[in-house]
Amino acid sequence: MKNFDEHPFVLRDDEVGGVGNLYSGPLPSLSPAPVAPLFGERAFGQKEERMDVVNVPLTQPERISNPTPSQPSAPAASVPKARKPHVATKTLVALVLVAFCLVGIAAVAFAAPVQIIAPTRVTSSPMSQSTPTTQPPARATPTPPPPTPPPLYINGGDIILPQGWDLSAADGVLAMRTALAFVDQEMTLDYRSAGNRDHHGGTFTASVPLLTPAAKFRFQHNDVRAANNELYDRVQKQHLVQQVVNENALIQKYQHDRQQVAIIQIAFQLYQSTFTTSPTEGKVATEHNMEVLLLKVDQATQGADAPMGGTGWLVSNYALDAATVEAVQPA
Asked: What is the tens place of the pLDDT at every residue in 129-168?
C-alpha cells in the first residue's frame, strides 16, 4: 500500500476554478484530439502530462488533478460549439400554426349559411351499381275478366221490319228469337247425345217441339236426322260435335192472307269438332245461311208446355243454303 507522501496530488489550473473531478491513482493519458470545452471554457491544445494520483480520503466530491505543465503552451484555436436544436421554439411555432388552422376552419364553417334539408329517398339506378339491388315486390295487377262474347244481335241492334208488317215490334223480336232457336237446335249435333240407330233422339230431335203439327210429320219422313241412319252413322264414326255460333237474324218477308207468315233469314257459322283415325282433334268453322218460314199462332192455344214458353210463332218449313224457302200446305 502506497503512502500519500510518495505522490502528492497537484491541482490543475481548471481545477483551481472549481471544474473537474478528483481521481485517485495515476491519471490516464489523454487523447491528442481536442476536447470540447466544458460549460463554455476553452480547450487546451497541449497534450496532457501523465501524473500519478493517489487516493485521498476527502469528504468533498472527488476532483481530477492536473499537473502543472512543464512549459506554457499557446491556447489552441477554439472549436465552435455544437448548437442544440431549439425544441421549445419549434413546438411553439407548431402550436401557433395549428391554432391558426382551427380558427380559419371555424370562421369558414360559421360564415356559410346553414340550410336544413328534408331527408329525401335516394333511389339508385341499376346501371350505376355493379351488384343488383333487391327491388320491392311489384303489386299484383288484378286479372281482368274475360271478354264477354258478342251477344246474338238483330241486324245492328235496331229491328228492321218488312213492308206491310201489321204486328208489334215485340212480335217481330219473338219471330226472330224463334227462328234463331230453331236453327241452333236443328243444326247442333253431338255423337254423345244422339239416341240409338232404332230410335234417334237427343240433339237429333231437339228442334221438333218448335215445328207445327204438319211440319213434324214432314220432319219424320224427309229430314236426314230421322228419315234414315246415314247421318247418325257418320256422326258416331267421326265423333262429331257440331254447334251453331255467331248467328244473325233478319225478317226478310211478311205476308198476311189467310195466315200470317214471316220468312226469317239466319246467317251463322257452324263449328265442327271431329276425332277420326288421328288422335288429334279436327276443328273447322264454316259459314252457312238458313231461311225459316214461321207461322203465327195464338199463344193461348200453345198450352202450358209450349216451346220457349209460347212465343206465338212455330216453324212451318226451312231450307239450308237455298235461294228461298218454299211455302207448303198445310203449313
From this structure: 445 556 666 666 666 665 544 444 554 556 788 989 999 9
Cα–Cα dist 101/103, whole Å? 5
**DSSP letter string, 19-32:** -S----SPPPPPPS
Q: What is the DSSP string of 271-314?
A: EEEE-SSSSSPEEEEEEEEEEEEEEE--GGGS-TT-GGGT-SEE
Query: Do 303 and 293 touch, CB atoms closer than 8 A?
Result: no
CATH class (in words) of the domain with range 155-320: alpha beta
Q: Greatest CA separation found in the chain?
A: 188
75, three cell numbers: 491556447
Alpha-carbon Rg for the chain in angstroms: 68
Which set of grid coordinates corresponds to residue 286? 264454316
Task: Say if strands 313-320 and 189-190 run parallel, antiparallel, or are unpaired.
Answer: unpaired
pTM score of the predicted model? 0.54
Cell of 21: 473531478
HSE-CB at 235 with a 13 A cutoff on CA atoms is 26
